[in-house]
């Protein structure tokens, strides 16, 4: 175990060489790319060096050391950025402490090098951060405002999760997860917000937050960072959001479906793959908007973006055009392929609320088709029993649900672990078709023979899920079941 000196937690005035520990994470690789494009010599280390991040980093000329150790700090860099994946036991962290090199965490580095010189637009909340921040960045770009951004998903318009623009705005996905082993506060506390969106506040990240109150405290700290001339766009349909913005030091504009909010939506309707909705601002008709995404939750995300853009000075006409032309994000209701009339969709949903809203949206979009759900609990929270009962009411939109038994968490009592078998039984008791499976191979064996023409298969996981999407599509292409022939 080691402790890094607080006196070295800074960025020196003169920097040529920056070393990044844990460089192959999605966010860290993006930061590496931004720093490289800014003219710094970048090296990095990670224990898991494999595509696509390894190829991306090699392609932009960044040297990667596989494995951690003191040799990776030779020659001595001017600054080291320490990723969230690094622990106190890491040998390179020990070497960093002994070498007395200045260091920053990922969010500290992002703020120092890129946010502080721009107007910071931070999208926070338990749900919808990636979609909302991607919408905001895309609309700013289409409004010719040339934004810089760092987002947790691959935005299709840019085929990237980051961008270095020349405009005045930085869009960040404000993650409430902890910063680093030497800083257990939330990442978003480093992002110097000028304008913020808060989409929702629920319990999540059970590995670092004890309860909902602990999460609320973190969000309240974030709210306190807003300057007096700042703005918070808050989803005030959510009572937890109401609570965390209660003592905000700046203006708060509420959004939601309640007409008493500053921004409210109504008349949500889906037509031909497009979701239309009307918006009122301060009780008056403001605009008719449309997005090519299903679900009222995506309309709410779009409404929050519209409120921010209005503050910046973008007209309703340009806002509507930007929202409508948004091309989506990888792993958010992403159609991975259609084979023999079966549509395979990939989505990141894992929290009970996200699972419920995603499936509801997909059922609305594919109303005449069977919706078959394949769910892999993979996060630290979803593999614990804390959401066991919450999941029971999340799969009503699904015709049939397969739940994979998760890999057990270390050092957690079996009674505190999520059970796919128990969830399947609980769903069956409610009259729903559901089945638990021990692994991905078993899911594919059971899923393929029952597929029928025009079925929609929604695969929900925040991980790779053993490449199930490609394997399913390949099987549908080369060995379709009898009902598809």
Oligomer: single chain
CATH architecture of the largest domain: 3-Layer(aba) Sandwich
> Helix coverage percent of residues?
25-40%
User: Globular, elongated, flat, extended or rod-shaped: what is the shape?
Assistant: globular
What is the residue-mean pLDDT, rounded to a whole number?
91
- The helix-and-strand class reads alpha/beta
Poorly predicted runs of 5 or more residues: none
Largest sheet: 10 strands, mixed
For the record, the CATH class of the largest domain is Alpha Beta
- Summed up, the domain count is 3
CATH superfamily of the largest domain: Mur-like, catalytic domain
Q: How many E-type strands?
A: 23
- Over all CA atoms, what is the radius of gyration? 23 Å
Short description:
This protein has 485 residues and is of the alpha/beta class. It is built from 13 helices and 23 strands. 29% of the residues lie in helices and 26% in strands.
